Amino acid sequence: MEFNLKNNAIELRVNSKGAELVGIKDLVTGQEYVWQKDPKFWAKSSPVLFPFVGAIKDNRYFYNGKQYDISLKHGFARDNEFKLSSQGEDFLEFVFSSNEETKKLYPFDFNFFMKYIIKDKTVKIEYRVENLTDGDMYFSLGAHPAFATPTNENIAFTDYYIEFEKEEAGEIFGLNGALISSKDKIKFFEGKRINLEKNSFINDAAIVENPNSNIVWLKNSKNNSGVKFDFSGFKYIAFWNVPGADYVCFEPWNGISDYDNASGELTEKVGIEKLEKNGEYVRELNITIF
Predict the structure, then answer these.
(1) CA-closest candidate to residue 283, choices 212, 216, 217, 234
(2) Number of helical (H) and strand (E) elements in the chain, helices listed first
(3) Is 199 exposed, middle or buried (0-12, 13-18, 19+ CB in 10 A)?
(4) Element at 235 (helix H, strand E)
């Protein structure tokens, strides 16, 4: 089911499946800023990544001496229905809770909330995890919004670029299939800017660890429209698209795919978050269109 919010500047649309962001429209210009799900390339627009980010080595992991089999990349929350838990004139909040099916894949009890708030031309997305387990809870959290890069006779995909708030080392992880390579990192860009090419992500996502920046922008050289993306509180930022498609994903993560030499023990997983009994974990993103 789709839900929407409006103010004088923007319209927000969210689907209850995965509490997925499916639209941010500028009500003055009519421009849609979210990728509109073309199955030829990619049939999602902004899946949430929980309780894992990326791939699990050998499709299994171990916790407290028990093996859990999971072949799903990026966890399972994105493929489940969320319930609308509360709403107001400027916000929608959804919740997904552990159940018998999730416990087969993931041994923890939780409530996972996603809240969308609009103000002027900004969408704030708040993620909140409640640990209902009798003990610590281990998890990862990530976002995966795809921003449209509309093209026509006057503007090409290669006119778009990603701009960081601060100078960056420009190194990304090497990949070994769907896993993170334990070998050296790769130089991907220089300074503050990634110029987008048709095959920029031919080798899958470009993942930056512990960036200097908390803000990145999607801009282009032909007009003044774009996206400001504040991902403060996340350890990684990744960028991705399917080559040939007119979008680029901005993916802030607290967690990452397994390394190719990972032990498989959940408590040893690189980037994993730990939340104590009855604890609450909150992160947020701010997306501003212009």
Answers:
(1) 234
(2) 1, 25
(3) exposed
(4) none
Average pLDDT over residues 155-165: 98
Q: Dmax over Cα atoms in the chain, in whole Å?
A: 59
Question: Binning pLDDT at 50, 70 and 90, where does residue 132 land?
Answer: very high
SS3 content of the chain, % helix, strand, coil (to 5): 5, 50, 45
Angle at 142 between CA 141 and CA 147, to 5 degrees: 160
Q: Does the bond joining 150 to the residue before it have cis omega, within 30 degrees of 0? A: no
Is-contact 254 273, C-beta < 8 A?
yes
- Tell me 104's DSSP state: H
Q: What angle do CA 79, 175, 232 make, to 5 degrees?
A: 60
Alpha-helical runs (H) found in the chain? 100-105
Distances (CA, A) of 165 to 187, 211, 247, 281: 19, 10, 21, 26
pLDDT digits (tens, 9 = 90+) for 178-199: 999 999 899 999 999 999 999 9
| Structure confidence by residue, pLDDT tens digits, 45-59 | 999 999 999 999 999
| 268, two tokens | 């040893």
Q: Which residue has the tokens 């990452």?
A: 256
Instruction: With CA atoms as reference, report the closest residue to 235 among 127, 141, 146.
Output: 141
